[in-house]
């Protein structure tokens, strides 16, 4: 059986390595705010499990505030079952903040629960 790369068969591949994290913070969109936990983090974005309803459409600009990373600015890429996918704004300082976090503070974790 031949092996095919994901790109060859038309599936999207990720450009940045993702790492599992347990960083708590708050996502803000206009006058809304919801606490959540960053469960997946890369240089280009993150996945955030939300603790309460949050209504922001795909393409909406949001801010994520955490003690570990500071303030990150991004765009909602997807929303599904209480989880948001955020892509960092290219002109923001987010990539440098994430790289600094991984270099100095991150400890590898294993998920406690799976979806």
Brief summary:
Pfam families: PilZ (PF07238). The chain is mainly beta and 115 residues long.
Shape: globular
H-E string: EEEEEEH
The helix fraction, in percent, is under 10%
User: Which whole number gives the mean pLDDT?
Assistant: 80
Assess the beta-strand content as a share of residues: 35-45%
Sheet/helix structural class: mainly beta
Structural domain tally: 1
The appropriate CATH architecture is Beta Barrel
CATH superfamily: predicted glycosyltransferase like domains
**What is the CATH domain class?**
Mainly Beta
Cα(first) to Cα(last) distance is 31 Å
Q: Give the CATH topology.
A: Thrombin, subunit H
CA gyration radius, whole angstroms: 15 Å
Which blocks of ≥5 consecutive residues have pLDDT under 50? 1-11
- How many strands, which pairing sense, and closed or not: the largest β-sheet? 6 strands, antiparallel, barrel
Strand order of the largest sheet: 1-2-3-6-5-4
Our count of helices gives 1
Number of strands: 6
Description:
This protein is mainly β and 115 residues long. It has one domain (19-105): predicted glycosyltransferase like domains (Thrombin, subunit H, Beta Barrel), CATH 2.40.10. 10% of the residues lie in helices and 43% in strands. It has one helix and six strands. A six-stranded antiparallel beta barrel has the order 1-2-3-6-5-4. The radius of gyration is 15 Å and the shape is globular. The chain starts with 18 loop residues before the first strand and ends in an 11-residue tail after the last helix. Residues 1-11 have low confidence and may be disordered.
């Amino acid at each position: 059986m031949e092996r095919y790369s994901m790109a060859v068969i038309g599936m999207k591949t990720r450009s940045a390595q993702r790492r599992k994290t347990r960083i708590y913070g708050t996502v803000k969109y206009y006058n809304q705010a919801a606490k959540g936990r960053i469960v997946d983090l890369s240089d280009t974005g993150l996945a955030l499990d939300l603790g309460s309803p949050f209504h922001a459409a795909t393409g909406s600009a949001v801010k994520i505030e955490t003690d570990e990373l500071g303030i990150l600015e991004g765009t909602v890429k997807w929303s599904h079952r209480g989880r948001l996918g955020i892509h960092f704004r290219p002109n923001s300082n987010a990539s440098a903040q994430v790289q600094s976090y991984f270099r100095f503070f991150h400890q590898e974790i294993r998920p406690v629960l799976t979806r």
